[in-house]
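#struct-queue
[09:14] JT: dropping the first one here, sequence first, then the structure tokens:
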Amino acid sequence: MGKLTRCLGAAALIALLASIQTESALAVPFDIGCGGQVDIDTDPPTLAACSVGSLGAINDLTVSLEIDDPAGFAYVSDLEIILTNDSTGISVVLYLGGQTATPEAYMDATFDDAAAALAPTSGNVIGSYLPVDALSAFDGVQLSGDWTLSLHDLTSWTNEGLDLISWRLVGDQVPEPATALLLAIGLSGIAAAGRRRNGLGGPPE
């Protein structure tokens, strides 16, 4: 009876690990602030770096950006904004403005594959929008490491004083296999202790 119980426990552990790997059963959220940077409407692009220490593979990713000009001359429609994972070289275009003379406009936006529409290419960019390229390109990529936000003014009117107030990487990640294994073993141990307390573990051999 003891061997059977242990075999059943091992089978349950294997099934749990398979669930972790294939169904993101233990995906955990992250919200990483990457700070800000001044004078980002430049040619060549301004590069804003974000170093991430959290371990795990990305299961879902959104990016939040706030861009404004404290002096009152914000023209976000001049910009092309690209996010790159430095370890893999994968790049995603988040926003591409119309590069036309438009009324003063700023950005306070979240780029999300689940949004309903692309961001406007002129005027204020406020709310949740589809990125130009899908952020799902980063699914399965390790969250840890260096990320770079490229902000490029594509017009001839550069250096007008736009500031990147803040940017964030938000989403959820699947823990590293070793971490998931430890968690699964812990859960298995808790279940085994419960069986022993209830007299279901069988007599020792």
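[09:21] JT: and here's the second one, same format:
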Amino acid sequence: MRSKMSRKIKSATHSEQLVTGVARLLSDTTHKHSDVQLKVGGKIFHCHKLVLALKSPYFDEQLFPSSSSSSSAVKEVVLNDVRADDFHKLLQFMYTGETELNEENVENILRAADLMKLTELTQFCVDYLTDRVSTKTYPRYWKIAEQMSLPTLALACKRLCLKEFDKIGSSSELSSLSETMMRELLEDDELVVESEMDVCETLMKWLNSQTQSGNPVQPYQLLTHIRWSAVPVEYVKTKLITNENLMTDRPCFEFLSKVISYRLTGVQFSGLNTFHRPSSRVEQCVVIVGLDIGIDISSDVLCVSLQTEDRVTNTHAIPTRMQRELAACVSGNQLYITGAGSDKKETWKWESAFGWMKCGDMNEGRRRHCATFVNNTSMYVLGGFVHEGDVTLDSIEQYNTVTNKWTKVGQLMHVARLAECVVYKTSIYVFGGIGQ
């Protein structure tokens, strides 16, 4: 018996010939093979069902519905809201895989490509727009991205706004931002600003533009994204609490009233945002000075970030002997500790740029006392006790940061150790503590 021989063959020109043949169909003026007409903007395009259906799920549903008997009856399709010139570009892409995008047609082609589920062409349009995002185009492009759910384009617009927020705040394009866009910018930690007051100024300009345009907004939600620890109380009183757009909204008035109270007392409340933006180069953290290691007190200083989870850094160790139950307080970006050293009189100041610096000694060494600043130049220590003889103190000492000297300025009505104190305006309030 003769064995059967088989041979697999493959044309080297098949793909090219097929692609070339399909491309020719679009330019064939005889319309010999056309089996469907597309009416777009008053112009008739003679097309081919199979080509349209293979490239576009939209046309596949239109031209080849589930009922096979009705498919042959589809002879004409009318497309509204698409310009003829733009549709011609889409047909070029479907038949040849190529077309030309420019600033005048890309937005219309994008919308039409999205309608006809031309995923590849849609992505080409998105890439084109993303490469051309600028301070002039971002409002329009961002709106398109929101309407059509295009996250890549939306992110490109948002990143530009975050980086160029100061320029946007002084441009005529500011009013084009929607409330959602403004909220996304204010709540983002990557917003680049020199001052949080600049953020407030831009927000008020935007609110004014929305009011003039008759666009309803909810300013209260936007206020919750301001970093209030960086906004002086006087600015809140003179600029924000007097703004008509904010004061006509009851929740805004109540919120700003609480902000003023927070800036005066330091007492926070629900909905208050106090974390600084990274661009300000200020970070809220807890500084731990003097770790109890059993035998002695360590001189290590740890910074525990409140804004970045699990970030603990070991900074400059304090160059003195640490004591149990010393006191610490903060003025601006300076940390002061009192009650250090072998005689418990030492005062030290820490700044991130210079590290630890020794200040003038207190008149009386003490432990378990409290310390606070009334203004930037006056620190007070109150109460505490002297370990030798277990003597509880009632004295109040004031440290002047300008003269670097301590002065006894008064005494407590009752002696106290382990007391607490708070400052309200220019008054110190002492509470709690243990007597003799």
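[09:30] RK: nice, looked through the second one.
[09:31] RK: The first strand starts at residue 36 and ends at 40.
[09:31] JT: good to know. The chain has three domains: 15-132, 163-278, 283-431.
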